[in-house]
Amino acid sequence: AVARAIGRREVxxxxxxxxxxxxxxxxxxxxxxPAELQRSFSLMRELDAKNAAEIxxxxxxxxxFLDNVSKLSPDDRRARLQKIEEGFQGATEVSxxxxxxxxxxxxxxxxxxxxxxSDLKRFEEDKEARRGGSDASRKRQKSxxxxxxxxxxxxxxEPTYCLCHQVSYGEMIGCDNPECPTEWFHFxxxxxxxxxxxxxxxxxxxxxxxxxxKKKSHH
Length: 219
What we know:
This protein is mainly α. It contains four helices and three strands. It has a three-stranded antiparallel sheet, with no helix packed on it.
């Protein structure tokens, strides 16, 4: 069973409407990312193929030069060596272009990751702010209950729990049935003074479990 005191109990998850703005913002920012990455990868493959073909051509040119170097005149040697050198310079430029494209692609992905981190940070800040507001409201409600004025108005937008349909306050316990429609219960409303050992089910869910056990026993 899960039971936590006020100030430490996790409040329910933010409503979809609260968190959807961050999701929509991030999805809008990455909408064009797949096509952008595909273009970058295609260009890198083209550069890679171009560089590989140039390297093979240079290997053949070097082999041919070495095989015939003794037959070449000094001018022919210089001319061929110059062409080979120019070829290697061209291959180096293609390699550098590929590396630059890879760096740009990495920066693009990293930029979106940083954007996601920023959105998550703001999401957590909103969550903490909401949690702080809920804690303050629970303290107000606990004070009202201790004074015997349960019927005094509270924040109409704050969710209610338990059999009493009141806002969260004091120590509460969560039902271990994941399908429980109520989820959280005040200790006093379910006759608890401390956290029970093992799993705990609210009266409604416990009754359902008991009925299910009886049906199985009859079969």
